[in-house]
Each structure stands twice: as C-alpha cells, then as structure tokens.
Amino acid sequence: MHENGSYSGGTGSGRPTFGPVVMGVSRETPGPLTISGSGGLYQAHGASVDSLRFGFAPTDVPGPRAMADSGGGAAVEPTTAMPVYQGSGGPNIIISAAGNRGRSSDMDGVRQSRDAEDPPLAQEAKRAIQILNPSGEIQMPRPPQMRVFCVSNQKGGVGKTTSVVNIAVALALHGNRVLVIDLDPQGNASTGLDVPHHAAVPDVYDCLVADTPISDVVQKVQGIPNLWCVPATIDLAGAEIELVSMVARESRLARALEQHDGEYDYIFIDCPPSLGLLTVNALVAAKEVMIPIQCEYYALEGVQQLTNNIQLVKNHLNPALEVTTVLLTMYDRRTRLADAVEQDVRAHFGDRVLTAVIPRNVRVSEAPSYGQSVMTYDPGSRGATSYFEAALEIAMRGAQVGAS
Ligand SMILES: Nc1ncnc2c1ncn2[C@@H]1O[C@H](COP(=O)(O)OP(=O)(O)O)[C@@H](O)[C@H]1O
Ligand SMILES: [Mg+2]
What we know:
35% of the residues lie in helices and 16% in strands.
C-alpha cells in the first residue's frame, strides 16, 4: 500500500479516488491554509474550509478539519492523487503529489488502481471538474525557472505526441504557462491542439531555417488558457536536409528559444520518430529529456541508442542535458507483458520513471480527431486522469528541484 499514495490512498481500497475536499475549497478566512494528505489523512491548519464549490460531494463527506480530527486510519476518506494544497488567500496550490516513485512496494498500489473498474458517474464528474478546473482555483506549482523538455523516442507510435499534448494541457489548465513546439513534420501535435498548420502558415521551419523569431510563428491554443503552440507544416519535412549545410545546424532551435527564457514555465518539444538533425536541435535546446515508452515487447529496444545520442549531445553540445522523466504509455492491464515491461523500465531508469502510468484508453485515441486533448474531450476518463497525475508529478518534481 502506498504511504502518501496517489493510487490506493492508504486505505487499501485500491480504487483511485479524488477526495472532494481538494476541489475548489473556498476560504472565508484569510491566512494560510494547508490541506495535506498522506496515507489517508488530511490535516488542515489555519483557516476553516466551509464549502465545496462544485456540489458534487456527497453531503456526509467531512471537511478537511473533520478528517484531520478523525486522526486518519482506515475510516478516513481515501486520499487522492493530489491531496495537498496550499493557499493563502489566492489560488489553491497543490504542494505535494502523492506517491513515492519507483519503489517496488508502491507498485502494488499502482497496479491495483489500474485494475479498478471505471468509477461511478459521480466520481467521474468530480475528476472532470478537478481536471478542467473551470474556476482556475486549483494550481500546480510553477517551476522556479523555465523547464524545457525534449520529448523523444525514435520509435514511432509510442505516445510522444499524445503525451506532449495532454501534459501540456494539464499544466496549462492549472496555472502554468506552457509552449508546445511541434518539431515533427507530420504536425500531429498541431492537429491535436487544433492549431492551423496548413502549408502557408508560418511555422517552426521558418525559425530553424530562416531565423524567424518564435514570437512571429507562435499561436494561442484556443480554449485553453496559458497554452501556446509553434506549429509544424509540411515545410518541415525538408528541414532535415536543408539544415545539413547550415552554420550551427545543431543549435538553431536553441538560438531561437534564447530570447524567450523565462517567458514560459514549460516548453515541450515534440520530436519526430528519428534521431536526425531535428531531434538533435531539440536535444540542444532542452535541459530535460522525457522519454515516453510504450508498454510492449520491444519497448527498450532503441532506447539504448537514444541514450547514447543524448550522451553525445551532452558531451559536445549541451552539458546541462539530463533524462529526467520516463513515462510508461499504453499500459494494457490485461497483459502480463505490460507488467514485465514496466519492471524492466523501472529497473533501468529508476526513479526517473513517473509513478503515473498511462493506460491504453480509447478516449485518448479518439480525442485528436476532435482537435482536442483527452483532458477536454473526456476529462472524467482514465486517460485524462492518468495524464493529469503525470503532469502533477512533473510539476512537483520541478518545484522540488527549485526548493533544493
Ligand atoms: N494511452 C493511449 N491509449 C490509446 N491510444 C493511444 C494512447 N496513447 C497514444 N495512443 C494512440 O497511439 C497512436 C500513436 O500515438 P502518438 O502519440 O502519435 O505517438 P508518437 O508521437 O510517439 O508517434 C495515436 O493514434 C494515438 O492516438
Ligand atoms: Mg508524434
């Protein structure tokens, strides 16, 4: 069972639940408020929490004070993936993600949660509100410095684009300023965010090849606050070849981003499924690498080649580069194989692997055809919940980096 568990919630129920107290609590009394949860215990300090904003909570659910008074234990409402908030008159900032990553004892809870059936409608509605965050009150902590992620895996179809789109949307919906750079000539991230990217649209190709400033090509993502996208058009298909003969060909994206340091909290660069010059440009421009790994047989094949390339870039072009985040995608709980792959990946990458694992979920694959992320297309789905948890873990790690 998890201590501090995002999945089993410390009660052993195995069902991932989102405690109602964490959603849109309103504080009448000014002053610091902390709702902290660990292993099934909420503690409230300072102000009282007197109303649940969205009305989805059953009336007999105790407020956080009552939960704290009950002293935890099995009788307490299970904790959630995002049990800890800190507010001081402003928005509620999540100050602690649940879950201890990478510890094998935690994996039981993780697996249990993935085995759980779909939650009842009310729980789904609660999740949806939490994820869509219409009041803007719930915030994920912002990193002290801009974080630039290269999202890469030279295998196609492992969930790079899906992860970029959904994690970016989740962070943006919770108070972070996020830029997605579509660096794949297929333009899937642009499609997923519903950003125009037909042939005449200025795009990332212009930044790479013609030194056009990012600010001239960036587009606001409609319907999501704080989210922007640099699209990719079909022009980008030629960039790989055109770049070969250019000066400073590996660092052209880095140069373009230089002028935007600090303008965003997160930049996610969605790479093509290759290790060519476009990916090298992303690796030089980024500080962190996120590797999505699909839970299937050849999962780790090719990853060694990717890490070799990352090491080369680190040695010669970008000493700050680190693989900080590995995300398991398309986990199919019906197969033993997915389990085996998960164990392999965790053994290989240790605590760089996020505790949150993305299940194979049909809503995730449907969303792009509506020009949406799964976060907005079906915010109550398991796909959306998992991406929310992944985004939260990323945000919490960023906040910890800043704190140390
Ligand atoms: N968790 C998931 N559940 C179901 N389908 C998924 C999931 N993640 C991705 N897909 C689908 O798998 C395909 C490949 O995903 P994509 O993100 O485009 O991979 P990549 O960018 O690595 O090529 C897409 O059709 C996408 O909709
Ligand atoms: Mg892609």
